[in-house]
Specification:
Number of strands: 11
Helix content: 25-40%
Distance between the termini: 52 Å
Strand order of the largest sheet: 1-2-3-5-4-6-7-10-11
CATH superfamily of one domain: Alpha/Beta hydrolase fold, catalytic domain
Structural class: alpha/beta
Number of helices: 18
Shape: globular
Amino acid sequence: MRSVWMAITCGAWLVCGRVSAAALPPLPLHECRLEHPLKISSVAARCGVLSVPENPAAPAGAHIDLHVAVVPALNRRAVAPPLFILAGGPGQAASDLYASTASAFARINRNHDIVLLDQRGTGRSAPLTCRYPDDWLETADELPRVRQATLDCLGKLGDRVRYYTTSVAVGDLDQVRRALNFERIDLYGSSYGTRVAQLYMRRHPDAIHAVILDGVTYPEQAIGPDTPGDGERALDLIVARCKAAADCSGAYPALQQDLDALRRRFGPARQTLTLDDPDGGLPLVLEFDRGLLNGALRFLSYNAAEASLLPTLIHQGAAGNLGPLAAQTIMMGRQIGDQLASGMQNTVICSEDVPRFSGAHIDRQRLALTYQGTDQLDALEQICALWPRGPVDADLHDALASDIPTLLLSGEADPVTPPEDAERAARGLTHHRSLVLPGEGHGQAATGCMPRLMADFLDDPVPSALDATCLERHRPAPFFVALTGPSP
């Protein structure tokens, strides 16, 4: 319960100056460990379960268990507000995100408890898991398999999937805050988690001390139609950065031509490959086609560390050695797929985003010119024609006006939430600071000096006073100039 772990963070059965007088009964917590998704490490925490109605409008009906974990502040006398971490996807669990990136929050954890609520439908909070074709198979000829997988998932999960929207999740978040007896909290939202954070800012502004939005979506945005154009822009920036780097341009002087050749070839063409499975080493036979190439370009554009591989893999592929590009894509696709609850993702996008497609002007001819084309958009429309829609706040997509101190983080070459999205989100934020990291992609929490900047901001949330001069020295990861790595 709250009082149990307060003995750790405060050194006694103390209130720490941040417990609400009108709190709910405290949530019992027990010792636990949060395991890295790849099982390479774990983090000590205190875990508990909060039972909530699956349908908030029917409190006497079926309940689900929300998994909550608290990583107590290292400073046992700390009185700073706790930081709630909101994961992306949609479909990633906060506990998985934190276990993967705990070092990025280590400075914050000195004085702030870290609170991890696996959003309903993810992780260990009644996960909505489905089996879909691999993420690079959402091409036109795979749509029948996508439809069948959707029907199979609904046959398993049923109509109850409708109760897993952002609006319902924000209600859960506030129940957890009150069950842990916190008056005010800080929020860190990553990617889709920035939508959750902004809706919480709208619903419960008095409960928030400060907010960090990383890889920012803006409230008016419908996820989907902008992604192919954003991905193309990010790929262009990566190629341009290679051209501007002496080592990379020296090793791959014809990188753009290599990329263009691959894209021309794997429009109509397919090639059967046999390679060692990157997970088990057994022989794997697959067809390299447009979908697999598009998946490679998309996955490897997500951040600068992964983008550092792209020139070498593109060059190797254009020269006929497609194995390394295919293996890297398969490995990354599996890792992403294993962490995302696709049923929860369907509920969010089908309830909150796809219904807005009809009112938006979607230039399919322009999208067709991008490497992603309309494949994902077509797949979403197929899924959402079948998927039940759930409750959505009427103002979810209204512009947000707020004076809550907010730090917005963007990567210059982000393929899904470019800096322009953060600029739009910031228009109604009267007390904000926006930071853009050159050459970086999606998600900045662990990048360069950002862990220190985030901690400084939460300790003193005055956006204009934040000293971010350390970013002037930041450089993205260098490009590989061979399969063995970058230049010495």
